[in-house]
């Protein structure tokens, strides 16, 4: 009996297609091949091998690449993720292969360089290629053609004319093997107990998930290092994935890995240069990279023998990818580990309600670390009631906060002022006519950035210089800035403390990751007195001289329709307060609030997380929201409001009838227009017993809309 191969292409096609296998071609699942697709030849991956019943005339697989194929568990993960995320498997495969610029790994691809001999005949297209070459490092012909925007024939012509030459890429240097036997720090008794539990899970083999639930500064990293060492020891080629939020910003943690295991880990994030990306991808695919530290997209790496996945700061909302392929990296990491039979460690000082509920029910092993290492104690958290201590108009720092700052600075210690608002002012309006400056596309408020003199839409990136006259009534110099952003708080702090060294820490910083690293270094060394920062300052940093955290607006984030708003605010405030007093000096956090009785804030002050969670849990349970029910959103967008409206009604009509499903909408989402596309949203709530993915898959199959209408399914949406 002959064999036929199902080939999956990294394209938005509904399924894999069957092909005949030529005599003598030895194929395995996961192999990279070329096969005819329509009128062209396309690269794809062998998805399945079966007996050919000979009833259909099949086209033939054209070529098999020698490069290492995808592991079986990677193939199964693609199928699982496609079903779960309501996506075509080809689109998930595309995400997996994105590590390879040319989509497929092929050491047989020739790379090119300039010879320095210009071609005898020059054309505009050839000139484009020669220009593009200066920015490329060892590109393939396809990369050159794409970069220069020409056909690959032009590249070939230049090779024949002697201006370009092919050469063999020197083999990528392998990642050095980490040494799991190197000793770590001497663990406290509490840490050692937690580490033992994790090591036991890893040693047991098979899928198991632990929640490492330790307060800020409890030494969680050192504890999961032990689990990593165990995973490396347990299998000669075992691999470990460590997910970190905002990896581009967390250089100091990378150094801790290098120190602990005596070798640099493989690092993966979207900012890697193509050559490095290819190298890391291949080393992982071939099982040689043993420790991989990555941003959320690293859940799509082609592991060969995953033994352990660690998700640090597992509650972090940046694990949710909301553009393109929509997914929650923590959830996918757990699913991937299940397929590979690997252990999972979720670590956080403020675990998500989902994970805590799993830990309480016994699905996850609960590993608590209730106190800080060494002599460090948790910061004292107090509120400042703004109803009694309102700063004068146009100011945001209350007298008690300024007094505390003064004491801290006098003691030679550092202050962090936290406000989760970038820019100078969140609103610019006309004093004469009341006109608000909004983005033309989205009607969202434009945020003033005073350092750059621009008004910016934080949703789309639209920006314009701040005008001198009101675009509505024409009044001159009437536009006024309302409310504070971090820039404005820094200005106010400077007015109070003219001698202090004050710096801003937000994602708007010029100079990117390198500037962030330098700023963190200066802060660690005590060269900054007052740091004024957004979310990005709240995460993971260890600033030994920081003893006072002032939260400018603790109420920000509590409003709005997001069912996770309370949980998010609580998590952010615990994290930011946790920056204080991490070394031998005790820290304190002062929260300015109009609502000190709010459950999230009261629980924070009392240090009573469980009281807060009980309230949260009860309300989620009553509404059957996650984790008690499941939620999905269906977003419909079109080029006019009317078409979006009609398409949404049509999509809603296609929804299959099923028990245990409730559908709300169509409604206008929080941002009704983005980049010129009008949006409508349906929310789907499913009882836990319902197979929501199957339901959404059936729904999607019934949706027939023209290409100008986009219909996007989002499982476990984060904001709506
Ligand atoms: P967490 O992730 O829980 O906030 P970390 O693992 O980052 O905590 O540890 C906080 C700080 O304490 C780090 O500087 C770390 O090096 C240090 N530390 C952790 N465990 C120990 C230990 N057993 N002995 C000495 N220092 C430790």
Automatic annotation (TrEMBL):
User: Is Ion transport among the key words of this record?
Assistant: no
**Which residues are in the Helicase ATP-binding domain?**
201-369
Biological source species: Hyphobacterium vulgare
Q: Per UniProt, where does Zn(2+) 2 bind? A: 457
Pfam families (UniProt xref): DEAD (PF00270), Helicase_C (PF00271), PriA_3primeBD (PF17764), PriA_C (PF18074)
Q: Which residues form the Helicase C-terminal domain?
A: 411-623
Checking InterPro entries in the record gives: DEAD/DEAH_box_helicase_dom, Helicase_ATP-bd, Helicase_C-like, P-loop_NTPase, PriA, PriA_3primeBD, PriA_3primeBD_sf, PriA_C
Q: Which residues form a coiled coil?
A: none
Q: What SUPFAM superfamilies does the database record attribute to this sequence?
A: P-loop containing nucleoside triphosphate hydrolases
PROSITE patterns per the UniProt record, alphabetical: HELICASE_ATP_BIND_1 (PS51192), HELICASE_CTER (PS51194)
Query: What keywords were assigned to this record?
Result: ATP-binding, DNA replication, DNA-binding, Helicase, Hydrolase, Isomerase, Metal-binding, Nucleotide-binding, Primosome, Zinc
User: Under which name does UniProt file this protein?
Assistant: Replication restart protein PriA
State the EC number(s). Answer: 5.6.2.4
Q: Gene3D superfamilies given for it?
A: P-loop containing nucleotide triphosphate hydrolases, PriA, 3(prime) DNA-binding domain
Instruction: Name its co-factor(s).
Output: Zn(2+)
Record function comment: Initiates the restart of stalled replication forks, which reloads the replicative helicase on sites other than the origin of replication. Recognizes and binds to abandoned replication forks and remodels them to uncover a helicase loading site. Promotes assembly of the primosome at these replication forks.
